[in-house]
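Exercise 4. Each item below gives a protein and its sequence. For each, produce the structure-token representation.

Item: Carbon-monoxide dehydrogenase large subunit (Falsiroseomonas stagni DSM 19981).
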Amino acid sequence: MPDTGLTPPTRFAVGQAVPRLEDPTLLRGEGIYTDDLELPGQVCCAMVRSPYAHGRIIGIGTEAAAAMPGVLGVFTGADMAGYGRLGCTLALINRDGSPLRNVPRPVLPTDRVRFVGDPVAFVVAETPHAARDAAEAVELDIDFLDAVTDCASAAAPAAPQLYDEAPGNLVLDHHFGDAAAVARAFAAAAHVVRCRLTSNRIAVCSMEPRGAIGTWDASAERYVLRLGCQGTFGMRAGIAALMRVPLGQVRVLTERVGGSFGMKSSPFPEYACVLHAARLLGRPVKWMNDRSASFLSDAQGRDHEVEAELALDAHGHFLAARLSAEANLGAYLTPFGPHMAPNNFVRNFPSNYRTPLIEVSSRGYVTNTAPIAPYRGAGRPEANYFMERLVEAAAIETGIDAAELRRRNHVRAAELPFRSAAGSLYDSGDFTAILDSAMAMADRDGFPQRRAESAARGLLRGIGIGNYLECTGVPAKEMGGIRFDADGGVTLITGTMDYGQGHRTPFAQLLQDRLGIPMERVRLLQGDSDALIAGGGSGGSRSLMASGSAILEAADQVIEKGRVAAAHVLEAAAMDIEFAAGRFIVAGTDHAITLLRLAAELRTAPTLPEGVPDSLDVSHIFAEAPMAYPNGCHVAEVEIDPETGIVTLLRYVAVNDFGVLVNPLMVEGQVHGGVAQGVGQVLMERVAYAQDGQLLTGSYMDYALPRASDMPPIEFHSLPSPATTNRLGAKGCGEAGCAGSLPAVTNAILDALRPLGVTHIDMPARPETVWAAIRAAR
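Answer:
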């Protein structure tokens, strides 16, 4: 029969820079976020937070608040005592073989508050104003205790203790590596360099604050939670455990998500509060954080102090590297909060160098500060930063050019696959070629002339290299669902979550490339836990590797089902059916039918023979894949005014290997965002607490973020080596901008300051910090 179906287009497949399909909706203001939702009968929740960093709860007076107009209930820790606890979900082991001291966090505390912003009660009222007014009327009787806000004070002999079960406030003492072998390498080294480095604490500052709407479906005896998160399948499991109900009694729904960067990946106490009140009151309960409360109560990122060491032989070859880290984990452990130092520091510290031995020791402390959670890279950018600072110090110590020292120690392309000292198996890449490309793109040879031009204007100029290699998260089990809809569209179902990345576009490109389905007909369903049979969520730069692989495998199943169905429709044998460019064709003939027409015919067919599928729908689970290793070299150029300490970022070059790029335009956008966040950490961002635990950076008047005027044009270049660890050949790109920018910009600043005798500076290099370093050196 002749083909009377739709002819699939050939444009917009894998490798093309297609503009994001999501953007028109967002630019028109039509995106639906949690705060846009208004359910029938909805009421409002306001949290009551501790004004003290540390103290014993003597009493909480709720009578006055409960009597205020419109108030439906006031709840304290006693009301929430029957629910589960929050804590770390990782099986981390101390160096003595004992497990991590997993100090549990109740939904609301009944004995002690442990940081400013710790929620101790909540009010539900008819309107937001009534709820907030009543929350302010709740009376707190708290016996103030001394606080600790950093690792050094937490570890001091007479320090206040946050938990009886964590003596010395130490919850994790982890060790990796052969200490004796590393010690021997250092003893035999011709050169040893050491750096004491800080990775400053960061406020996440997602554009959309956290919020949630809880409902109770009495007929189904089921909780429904609407919120922004990084994956509804995993969030459902966390909420079910917190509410102490079976998985089937929880449904999680997510609309658009305005940023997360790791922070919204796990449950928070407020989510249990709205569900509790919804069940009790029989009405939907909505809570939304404001920006001030976000600074106080959101999980924060980074916050490490490390001693980094590198041993080299007389020819500049790396012999061993050693890292001793102290991690400030905040007042409570989040599910992945302790993950960064013992896991990602270990995996990423070797970078793309042939370092034979590494040793990583890490101690995690609890303090009277907001809890720590993963933040864009979750230890990967930090580990690369530590190594790159060591390499720059080694270049000065040995007198070897910084780029040449890196070349001398790179894992060579001919040595791949290469097992790193951390046990990672690097499968692909050409690290030296990327470095050389970055040097050429940045015109490093012409830098002396540019430095002289700056000097003539009384300014200091510096250039810095940020070499990096990241070990991505391991792609977990992931759903690849393909559903052919009655209106001729196709719905992709995935357990990963777009919280700003733009998943619909590259996923649709994959489907068009494999099945010939026009991109504009592809929808993305990702925010309903009921629709999922698996889902690892988004994080660790693994979404495309996981969902992409799941989509391709599901597409293969669609083709196989389609061969059987097309054989029936075209009156041919299944073995004679070929598939190409979205069409099933009888081999050697012009008889064909498009995939979309076939799906429509199956939907309307009154009866079908046995063995012929009644639809082409597929619900598939991708098993898993090894991690991948995105890598690259970033080069930053800065100018510094020695009279003011102001650092101006003049130029930025980024050469990256992300394997196969499904959508180069979107990849470049991801790098831009990551670089901007890295620049923010290097130049301006730092969460600061007073000695008594009061937050000093609780608004954008006190906490600076980079603006467009702080960023130069970013020159993006790709030098890909396809990964062999997944079918797509992709390596992940979401966090690489931070990994390259932290060392590149910091090394550029030090390069500018070195002629004045400044050899060290910590992030953030704010004007007053740079100015003071210059004055101290003079």
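Check: The chain has 19 helices and 28 strands.
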